[in-house]
Amino acid sequence: MSISDERATSKDPTGYGWRTSTPPLSHSYLNHAILKILQSQNACRVLDFGCGNGALCRFLSSFDFHVVGVEPDLAGVQIARRESPSIAFYQLGVEDNPDEIVQSEGLFDVVVSAEVVEHLYSPHLLSHFAWRCLKPGGLFVVTTPYHGYLKNLFLSLAGKWDHHHHPLRTGGHIKFWSRSTLSKLLVDQGFVLEDFIGVGRFPWVWKSMILLSRKPSTS
Asked: Between helices 179-189 and 124-133, what is the axis angle to 10°?
């Protein structure tokens, strides 16, 4: 059974359906792109929001980053804590107050949120949460499935929209982002856009996109 199948059969309607420590398939094309970004920033302290079962936290920790994970799904947090007892994991969602994290861990050089924003009913709360956890001048790294004219056209011609939306999966995608709409979400919070990176497949039909935005050093 694949990890997507495992999530689909979860009997908990409020959770994402984490059952194993297996990394999501997206990690095969996202992890090293995120690692490269963090290394280019000389980052040390990283918060992974929506860390799921902790797979990305474990990966980054192996490169000596000080990583803290945040995940609303209790099952995911329990797996993450079991697999990585040396990493701090908090069970919080975007609607929760991050003061507990900031008071315990301090502010972060980078906040990463990988393949999370497409699952949120109130995505503006994600950018607000990240803002409160970042030090002045800190970087916010957001990844989400890429959508643009050419990719959407290919999905239509191939009859793949039902598969792509995957409405029967527990915790599935509820919002679909373009570079423009995700950029606006970040700018509206006050972030300054820095870069756009497409990952997976070939240009303009990327599997996912990465947007880099920075919290200003002074407000």
From this structure: 50
